[in-house]
């Protein structure tokens, strides 16, 4: 009896200690959001709106088949920028790289300070043939109506090009003098990989020994209802982007008549391999940028969610299980597998001699292309299936503790004071990955507040941006320049 009482007492003491420790962790969780400092200047709103509207009207479309690109339209767009931003083109140095990508250099007072780079792209994706009639306003009209600016590129990413140049033009009019050099770099082929644009800019600057404190590109945005337990909109700054790989699974062997099939056909074996991969999946792990995201948003969560994330050392398996229930959050913590193409057979009564499948994978930082190939081969367990993997590794992971990240976070808070600003892992690609070669850190953030519907419009029908969002973007870019100017 005494032994049982002692056991119960010990268990009760452990439970009490557990409650004390976990409650302490929850109640002492401090915010990681800086206090906002509101912008007090004024912007020439009419000029800015008119300039973005006109910029959208240039059909600077990138095609996978580069021979289809109308580079004369790109030349006209560049001339338009020269006319629209006279102070920028009078006081900054402009260099055209590879004919159509642009590098503006704003010289600062102290050459010893590492420069900061802001980058965007002015090429856009095509409008899918046959969908033009579904647009409320013509896709290259630049129509301004109902408080919105309509057209392809309004969000991705002429808003960045025009927003940055409007910010610089305004700062020049105020007599602003930078302490460090600033570079504003605009690629012309981001939508098809950036090999002729951003990559060439990087090679050009690298040959001159230019190194950046940080580079900021497009990427994450401020999104409503993004994180469970957080009522405020959450702005996410990409500190890394996933790698993108294509895996081909193929098998060759004798075919034959369908009336006498083998127990395991070529189609069946490849199908079985895909089924095993989808059932197994890559292991999930809440670490790196995904973990950073929740460390930044946890202090702003409702009490129950805050309790869970403040005590991740206990609840991590539960958190990971919850995150795996939705594709968007699952992609935050594991390399993803998406079969996209299956090829086999030509005749209904003939067994194909070859079957193949294409799988698109998005790689977590830390998972290499070789890791992916090895995982597929181990999971498939079929030595006759040939596995080929090609693609790009995940980018490096940038710091969330440096003044570089804090300058971007502070700038976002200055404009969007109710938003929670946090790091995250970007699933799509951007030009930022090219700048990893010459920058201490690279970040990805589009300074606009969006809904899930807005996100779907970026490469889709009815792309548009609200005038308020666009003006806020200009203010943000001014804030980034000023915040970066204050730091070492």
TrEMBL record:
All copies of domain Peptidase M20 dimerisation, residue ranges: 240-383
Hydrolase keyword on record: yes
Recorded GO MF terms: metal ion binding; peptidase activity
UniProt keyword Hydrolase, yes or no: yes
Keyword tags: Hydrolase, Metal-binding, Protease, Zinc
Gene3D superfamilies for this protein: 1.10.150.900, 3.30.70.360, Zn peptidases
Any single biological process term in GO: proteolysis
InterPro entries in the record: ArgE/DapE_CS (IPR001261), Bact_exopeptidase_dim_dom (IPR036264), Pept_M20A (IPR047177), Peptidase_M20 (IPR002933), Peptidase_M20_dimer (IPR011650)
Domain of life from the UniProt record: Bacteria
SUPFAM superfamilies associated with the record: Bacterial exopeptidase dimerisation domain, Zn-dependent exopeptidases
PANTHER family registered for this protein in UniProt: N-FATTY-ACYL-AMINO ACID SYNTHASE/HYDROLASE PM20D1, N-FATTY-ACYL-AMINO ACID SYNTHASE_HYDROLASE PM20D1
Family, similarity comment: Belongs to the peptidase M20A family.
Name assigned to this protein: M20/M25/M40 family metallo-hydrolase
């Amino acid at each position: 009896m005494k032994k049982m009482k002692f056991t119960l007492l010990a268990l009760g003491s452990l439970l009490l200690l557990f409650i004390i420790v976990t409650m302490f962790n929850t109640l002492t969780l401090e915010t990681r959001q800086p206090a906002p400092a509101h912008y007090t200047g004024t912007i020439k709103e009419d000029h800015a709106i008119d300039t973005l509207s006109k910029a959208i009207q240039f059909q600077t479309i990138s095609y996978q088949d580069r021979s289809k690109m109308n580079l004369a339209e790109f030349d006209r767009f560049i001339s338009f920028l020269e006319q629209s931003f006279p102070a920028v083109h009078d006081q900054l140095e402009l260099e055209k790289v590879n004919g159509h990508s642009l590098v503006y250099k704003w010289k600062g007072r102290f050459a010893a300070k590492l420069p900061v780079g802001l980058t965007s792209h002015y090429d856009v994706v095509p409008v899918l043939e046959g969908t033009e009639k579904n647009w409320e306003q013509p896709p290259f009209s630049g129509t301004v109506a109902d408080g919105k600016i309509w057209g392809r590129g309004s969000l991705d990413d002429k808003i960045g090009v025009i927003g940055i140049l409007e910010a610089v033009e305004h700062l020049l009019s105020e007599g602003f003098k930078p302490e460090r050099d600033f570079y504003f770099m605009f690629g012309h082929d981001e939508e098809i990989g950036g090999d002729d644009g951003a990559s060439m800019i990087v090679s050009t600057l690298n040959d001159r020994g230019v190194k950046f404190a940080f580079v900021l590109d497009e990427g994450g945005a401020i999104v409503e209802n993004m994180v469970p337990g957080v009522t405020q909109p959450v702005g996410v700054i990409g500190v890394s982007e996933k790698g993108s790989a294509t895996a081909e699974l193929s098998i060759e062997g004798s075919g034959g008549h369908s009336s006498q099939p083998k127990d395991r056909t070529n189609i069946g074996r490849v199908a079985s391999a895909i089924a095993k991969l989808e059932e197994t999946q890559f292991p999930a792990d809440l670490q790196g940028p995904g973990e950073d995201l929740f460390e930044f948003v946890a202090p702003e969560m409702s009490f129950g969610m805050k309790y869970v994330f403040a005590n991740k050392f206990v609840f991590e398996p539960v958190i990971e299980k919850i995150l795996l229930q939705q594709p968007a959050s699952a992609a935050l913590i594991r390399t993803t597998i998406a079969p996209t193409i299956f090829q086999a057979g030509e005749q209904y009564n003939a067994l194909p001699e070859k079957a193949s499948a294409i799988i698109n994978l998005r790689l977590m930082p830390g998972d290499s292309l070789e890791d992916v190939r090895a995982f597929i081969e181990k999971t498939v367990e079929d030595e006759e299936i040939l596995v080929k993997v090609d693609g790009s590794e995940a980018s490096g992971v940038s710091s969330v503790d440096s003044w570089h990240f804090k300058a971007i976070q502070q700038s976002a808070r200055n404009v969007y004071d109710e938003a929670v600003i946090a790091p995250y892992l970007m699933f799509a690609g951007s030009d930022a990955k090219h700048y990893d070669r010459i920058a201490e850190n690279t970040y990805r953030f589009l300074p606009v507040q969006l809904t899930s519907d807005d996100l779907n419009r970026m490469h889709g029908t009815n792309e548009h941006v609200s005038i308020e969002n666009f003006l806020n973007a200009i203010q943000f870019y001014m804030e980034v320049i000023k915040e970066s100017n204050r730091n070492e």
